[in-house]
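HUMAN: Spend a minute on the protein record below and explain its fold to me.
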Amino acid sequence: QVRLVESGGGLVQPGGSLRLSCAASGFNLDYYAIGWFRQAPGKEREGISCISSSDGSTYYADSVKGRFTISRDNAKKMVYLQMNSLKPEDTAIYYCAARHYRSSACPSRYDYWGQGTQVTVSS
């Protein structure tokens, strides 16, 4: 069965770093775009980053650009989100998502979602 499992969340002080991982199973990542999303209580879900399937092009929301880096290892069926210079407003549940999408761009909708991992940035 298709499954995505996030890990690596936790509590960190402002200015600190975390690396989130997304482990995929039940499908081949080769032709799938992967996105990272986050949602805080009372707020809309926000797309923050994605990586394409064809050439590994990456995209970032303005809110995280220059601080977060997305990467993938198709052989290991893993996707990562390196988060640096964390701010309190980064506090949210973070989700990874996937969609079969053979393009250098990223899709606007995703088919498969993980359960989420909590990131809390506080002093």
Observations:
- The longest strand covers residues 92-100.
- The chain is about 0% helix and 50% strand.
- The mean pLDDT is 96.
